[in-house]
Amino acid sequence: MNSADVEKLEDVIVRSAEQLAGSIRAARQAVSTVIFGQERVVDNALVTILAGGHALLIGVPGLAKTRLVETLGVTLGLDAKRVQFTPDLMPSDILGAEVLDESAAGKRSFRFIAGPVFAQLLMADEINRASPRTQSALLQAMQEQHITVAGARHDLPVPFHVLATQNPLEQEGTYPLPEAQLDRFLMEIDVGYPDRDAERKILFDTTGAEQTTAKAAMTADTLITAQRLVRRLPVGDSVVEAILTLVRSARPGEGGDDAKSIAWGPGPRASQALMLAVRARALLDGRLAPSIDDVLELAEPVLKHRMALTFSARAEGETVTGVIGRLKARVG
């Protein structure tokens, strides 16, 4: 590609970013009018969707995790469906199933009835309450954007995102997500308690005669355009090196003194996730290229669920967050 082509491509990216910036800002503002005191959570959820990924929201009950997902569906103009995960939920309850039909002439044939997975935004509520068999039903959908039932392939809508919620408490009667499924989530987003002022706003907004409702700020087509633009944003060599250094140092044997604490670490999918996430964060902030600050900001939600510490490290009080913090300090 010669210099003229490069300049032309840069002009196209700049124009596209300027056109989309207003829609993205409007979506961010629309969500913030319904969800109070969770700015970082909202931003990370939007970054995940702009990057074309899936997110796992973890927090105690009553922190608006479910409402956040519902709000995102309305704000981004997506067809959203919700599945309440329970121990007796079957894979067919999510994917769909084939039923035997008989015509008026007596001819029998199978017909596929689509499950709730055929949505642009699927909310998997309390995903860790379902059995491993049911959890694994989402693996192919989350990675390949299609499912296979009775040997037949069924493509999912575009875009397709899974936002799952998980309660860190009440671990009895739950099934921890396997590493293969955790790796499918671009981010693990911790939902914390709101501050005092935000909780005051929540009190007045949710206990009055009228409650603030979400309003559409984007369409699915606009979101798809933004997702394509994210993949075209340029990434500087210093940012690429920061991503590689950070992810590789989080693996056993490659993290210096911290390697002794790590039982297993992130694979190449983590590097891909971080590369897309920093681009999406730049676009969300109205910038045309990500920085090392983006890498450091998103390192924890992208890497935390892709790592595990050794038994001895946990016995000494070590945490994954602490290890990632030290690895970030080396990069920053």
From TrEMBL:
Residues 54-187 form the ATPase AAA-3 domain. InterPro entries: ATPase_AAA-3 (IPR011703), CbbQ/NirQ/NorQ/GpvN (IPR050764), ChlI/MoxR_AAA_lid (IPR041628), P-loop_NTPase (IPR027417). This is MoxR family ATPase. Gene3D superfamilies: Magnesium chelatase subunit I, C-Terminal domain, P-loop containing nucleotide triphosphate hydrolases. SUPFAM superfamilies: P-loop containing nucleoside triphosphate hydrolases (SSF52540). It comes from the Bacteria. Residues 260-319 form the ChlI/MoxR AAA lid domain.
